[in-house]
Amino acid sequence: MRTIDTIYINGRFVQPHGTEVAPLFNPATEEQIGTVRLGDEQDVDNAVRAAKAAFQSLSRSSKADRIAMLHSLNKAVSARASDLADAMREEYGAPASFIGFSVPHAGTAFLHMADTLKDYEFRRRIGRAEVEMKPAGVAAAITPWNSNYGFICSKLATAIAAGTTMVIKPSEMSAIQTQLITECLHDAGLPNGVFNIVNGYGHVVGAALSAHRDIAKVSFTGSTATGRAILQAASKSMKRVTLELGGKSPNIILDDADLDVVIPQVLAAGFANSGQACIAGTRILAPQSRLEEIHDRLANAVSMVKVGNGKDPAVTIGPMVSQKQWDRVQSYIRLGQEEGAHLIAGGEGRPEGLDHGWFIRPTIFSNVNNDMRIAREEIFGPVLCVIPYRDETHAIEIANDTDYGLQAYVFSGDTEHAKQVANRIEAGRVVINGAPHEPLAPFGGFKQSGIGREFGAFGLDSFLEPRAVLS
Ligand code: NAD
């Protein structure tokens, strides 16, 4: 049993003022593996005060100083890659494939922002005006449980590049991972107060940060419902907000796609991070003319997907993070059947051979139309819908007929053809034929998938305020 009873303020691990304690679980076994003592409003005040004091010097630091800090952070995080991987497997249940992406990604976030910073123009002349990009003020980061290290590191890296100090509130369900990453960040030896990390519930610590008068900007990743609450709380003091929210991404198979190549990629996009991914391609849009063949191939490919404890390297789908999340996904599998969709794979209950752990049977529905709730709402588990389309215009119409617009996937035998379709998609990112991740490209969504963009130069802009001096 792990006991997490400190938070990190002004360069030190300290006992929180808050006294509430929450349990921590291993989702693959359902066993309680620890407890976390949570912060409260007083802890938020203390953390903001430390960040505000540190802002004076960080906001005036040179590019070279910040680049040095980012390199130290990279070294400190990379040094404990194997501990970070173990904690992520135990507390989150991530399979090896996701850990293999996530842990290095957390460390390299600092190097990517160091590179971005090198080339960033903080001073620009526009006509008579001299424009300077100034750090916006103390920032808050509020992050979810589905990629704890990645979000903490990428938001902190961007804030430091901008010369902005930060108070971070990670998910209360990721406290063991948070403890480890905080130890790494501490080892980087940054000046006190540059970053502060407060564990706590969203409605307590998250809400206090979103309303705090000394916070100038909130960078949030999480659900659309929480994003709305943060936007409302932030509006009182006109905080800058970046919201990275949910998705219901179209996964479009064009009629010229080579199904031998494409079907595994379609499933990989749909089941990314055990289905607990904002970018998961959960609506598979299939040409009517090839529907039967696509159903058969999907069902066959799913039968080879291994669900289980991430300790097993063959596993590609791990458990849901909590009992609540398991119940929620089960309720959507029931709902799909009630709405008249057909199961071509999976269904309710646990996968065969797994009698405990929050595991879901990888599920695919056919006979789905885009008005059904299973096609419109984010399920956040390994549950996919196949939606038939008549022609390309119809496919694009369905793809864009959603409240979300985070990411889309297009598969075609001809890249130019795929690009023509991509140009008509309302989403922050369109991935063609399983193209690899491009971390420095802007990340964020259209419509209710969020406001603003994160990381790289676009993310850096969002932590800065332009000031024009005319002479
Ligand atoms: P969540 O919205 O429940 O929680 C996210 C964070 O917000 C947590 O730290 C939580 O404690 C905090 N929070 C909760 N209520 C709050 C409040 N009233 N005020 C301030 N903070 C509050 O989301 P989750 O369940 O942790 O994560 C899953 C969701 O995150 C999904 O909807 C998913 O799509 C989304 N997500 C989006 C992205 C993206 O980049 N767009 C990435 C990952 C996850």
According to DSSP, the number of beta strands is: 21
Low-confidence stretches: none
The CATH class label of the largest domain is Alpha Beta
Major beta sheet, specifics? 7 strands, mixed
Proportion in helices: 25-40%
The number of helical elements comes to: 15
> What percent of residues are in strands?
15-25%
**What would you call the structural class?**
alpha/beta
Radius of gyration (Å):
22 Å
Average pLDDT, rounded to a whole number, is: 98
Strand order of the largest sheet: 15-16-17-14-13-18-19
Which fold does the CATH topology of the largest domain refer to?
A: Aldehyde Dehydrogenase, Chain A, domain 1
User: Number of folding domains?
Assistant: 2
Report how far apart the termini are: 64 Å
Quick one: CATH superfamily of the largest domain? Answer: Aldehyde Dehydrogenase, Chain A, domain 1
Bound molecules: nicotinamide-adenine-dinucleotide
Regarding quaternary structure, what we see is single chain
**Looking at the structure, what is the overall shape?**
globular
CATH architecture descriptor text of the largest domain: 3-Layer(aba) Sandwich
